[in-house]
Give the backbone structure.
Amino acid sequence: MTRARRLLLSFFAAAATFAAPPEHAPKPKLVLAIVIDQFRYDYLLRFRSNYNSGLARLLEHGAVFTDAHYLQAATVTAVGHSTFLSGAPPSVSGIIANEWFDRESGQTVTSVFDPKSKLVGGVPGSPGSSPRRLLTSTVGDELKMQGLESKIIGVSIKDRSAILPAGHMADGAYWYDSDSNHWVTSTYYRAELPGWVRQLNDEHGYQRYLGAKWLPFDAPDDSAKPFCTMTAGTDVRYCGGLEATPWGNEMIEEFSERAVAAENLGHHAGVDILAVSFSSNDYVGHAVGPDDPAVRDISIRTDRLLGKLFAFIDQKLGAGNTLVVLTADHGVAPVPEVNQARNMPGGRLSETRLQQKIIDALARRFGPGKWLLNSSATTAYFNLELIRSHKLDPAEVERVAADAVAAEDHIARVYTRHELQAGQVQQDAIGRAFSLGFYSPRSGDLFILQEPYYLFDATGTSHGTPYNYDTHVPLIFLGPRVKPGVYAEKVAVNDVAATLAAMLDVQEPAGSIGRVLREVIQ
Ligand SMILES: [Zn+2]
């Protein structure tokens, strides 16, 4: 052996020692990825004194981010859930809203609607849902592509909330079909429900709640005034459906326990992921708003349900083997009338009035015709064929419509497709939020933002803006490799995927724009 070769060999030996992986805590066996649908960050503060279970455990022992936000303008369920474990904004993930106008089919499609798939376990023949419209990978997909045996399962009342965090290679996504009162999936995942889901459906758990009254969590007996009842036509507000009561969340928790046990989660060669989204908070919140006692009540009940789920998983997997990450998909605005009563800005705007303004302005300027193919309060799709046949400049058509909308009261901003494509937006967080929300093949031609606290809904309240009441959500990690503490720096929910990827030693998802929150990794 020559001297040079000996030197080279000893160099490689040294390099190998340096390249040994850093010693850190053992990897978790299960990632429990939780979304509470429509859970504002301030619900952690406002109801803190009544949290003594799951949320309390996260707040006391976890890494708690106090200023976590969504970056995109459309703060809605599909976008929150697609962002959560992909780290991708709509501009990359293609999930621009809960639903959008599909120019190719001329139909409005949901973020997960998939005509190629059929529902499994519900009304036979119903169309199914799948993650096919999600263009990027999730943390679960990356684990799967890495090749170790991992199980990835998503569950929620809503199809999009079960499907989008779980990703393309998920072993299953399950949601609740209120037509059949069954847990269902789609042929994208499998041809038949697994035995344990069929078993759960056969138990008809929903029957427990027929005619039930939702009483305050601390009611001494059932003479207390209920928030709503499952019987229509009484003088108490009708809950509307199981999903709009705390019992919807209870069913999700029950399903999650069954999934952990039956799918043997936490006992595979690779890390497993259970993505759970609690939907009922959103239905309740829309109906009554963040300042109503019913929201406080369901928040406190969510704390208890989380505690129950954590205890079950600890018992199955042993304590310290589960990495929990919890967030919300969006916040919510106060009810406008509640705001007005306390001298805060806010009010209700008319979507049809706005639509008519656009139609009138275009007809006045360019002549009669069906200029709008589709529109909602915050976006509009123009008739490109008509624009072409009139040999018009699409940018000019957009401008005329934008000017008409901008002249309306309480409209804060209007951006056009051409402005977003050219990056001609105001250089602030809101301008950036619209850029991050724009995906050319799916987005509309006009983007409308109302002033803070104004809503296009006739009753109740809603979300969907880049204002803090919609973007600011909880973000908490707890478990192996997590350094507990309170972290006040402003972070994005987009950082979750990069952080999990770093903790799990796996490739960062394809469209992730987040940073690794290395301050919480030990
Ligand atoms: Zn939502």
Notes: DSSP finds 19 helices and 22 strands in the chain. The mean pLDDT is 95. Residues 8 and 403 are 70 Å apart (CA to CA). The longest helix spans residues 293-317.
